[in-house]
Design a protein that fits this description.
Blueprint: E1 2-9, H1 16-32, E2 37-39, H2 54-57, H3 60-69, H4 71-85, E3 88-90, E4 94-96, E5 106-112, E6 118-122, H5 128-134, E7 144-147, E8 150-154, H6 163-168, E9 174-179, H7 184-201, E10 204-213, E11 222-223, E12 228-230, E13 242-245, E14 252-257, H8 260-269
Parallel strand pairs: 1-2, 1-10, 2-3, 8-9, 9-10
Antiparallel strand pairs: 1-14, 3-5, 4-5, 5-6, 7-8, 10-11, 10-12, 12-13
Helix pairs in contact: 1-4
């Protein structure tokens, strides 16, 4: 299969038609490059707040509600594009007010298939900004999606930095990591997490990023990143584990051809077997003896 992962700039949108044109062009471009899966980043949907004007887009709380209010139409557009172009799409995540979860929004990414099916994954662990200023809530449980491309798991940005969340998705062949990071330090934290999870689970991880300035927003005003597709540095994969990476802060798709059979092969015949040997840590991760050497 071919995977396309985005370095996605956030724009000011005057009308819904502007968003339709932009998203349609991005998906058509991924499809033209032969992509079977297109991955958009965390909080890429925040540009939709500009549809209600600069005053709303520039207000933290009002921008949450503005984006959440149009996510039904956003979902229908993604579903139509996935069917039209015959590819899977992980839509950019968005704040969503879901009464089934609580009074505060969750950070939700939705996966769309060419058959018209769709399902979502909510972020599990909030960053300081999300919990202290935005008051975004942890959402529903982790899921694995059984698709025509294989088993897919999603860890949204900060979630990728937690090994136990990655382990919960260890049956996944593909681990999607949509991200939104302000500084280069944040980009590398998520990238290191994505690469570490690929190492531990001996799978392929796919990182998408927001890029560029969006000074109209107090939440996503500065964005640093690029697309990346990673595997374990082992049998059947590059020595670095890097299948493809983009150019820092340059918008566009990063594309790589991926053979899912290599995941099964490395899990069975890798030089190391991290995934299989995970349980060997049990009993060795308890109380640590401190020996004084000074």
């Amino acid at each position: 299969m071919k995977i396309a992962t985005a370095a996605y700039p956030l724009d000011v949108l005057d009308t819904w038609a502007d968003y339709t044109v932009k998203l349609s062009a991005w998906v058509a471009d991924a499809a033209a490059q032969g992509a079977d899966l297109a991955v958009f980043p965390e909080y890429g949907a925040m540009e939709l707040a500009t549809l209600q004007g600069p005053e709303v887009a520039g207000d933290l709380e009002r921008s949450l509600h503005a984006v959440s209010s149009v996510m039904g139409d956003v979902g229908d557009l993604h579903a139509e594009l996935a069917t039209r172009h015959g590819l899977h799409i992980l839509g950019a995540s968005a704040p969503v007010f879901d009464p089934a979860v609580g009074m505060r929004p969750v950070n939700r990414a939705t996966l769309y298939t060419p058959s018209g099916a769709r399902a979502h994954q909510d972020k599990q662990i909030m960053t300081r900004f999300e919990r202290e200023e935005w008051h975004v809530a942890p959402g529903g449980p982790l899921r694995i999606f059984d698709t025509a491309l294989g088993q897919i798991g999603i860890l949204i940005c900060y979630d990728s930095e937690f090994p136990l969340l990655g382990r919960a998705l260890a049956e996944a062949d593909l681990l999607l990591v949509p991200s939104c990071t302000e500084a280069l330090t944040g980009y590398w934290r998520v990238r290191i997490g994505a690469m570490a999870r690929a190492l531990e689970a001996q799978c392929i991880s796919v990182m998408a990023s927001t890029v560029g300035d969006a000074h109209w927003s107090p939440a996503v005003d500065t964005n640093t990143g690029m697309g990346g597709i990673f595997g374990p540095p082992d049998t059947g994969f590059p020595a670095t584990g890097v299948l493809a990476e983009g150019t820092l802060n340059q918008p566009g798709w990063t594309v790589a051809e991926v053979d899912a059979a290599r995941v099964a092969h490395v899990r069975a015949h890798g030089v190391v077997l991290n995934r299989r040997h995970w349980a060997d840590q049990a009993g060795r991760d308890g109380a640590v003896t401190v020996e004084r050497l000074r």
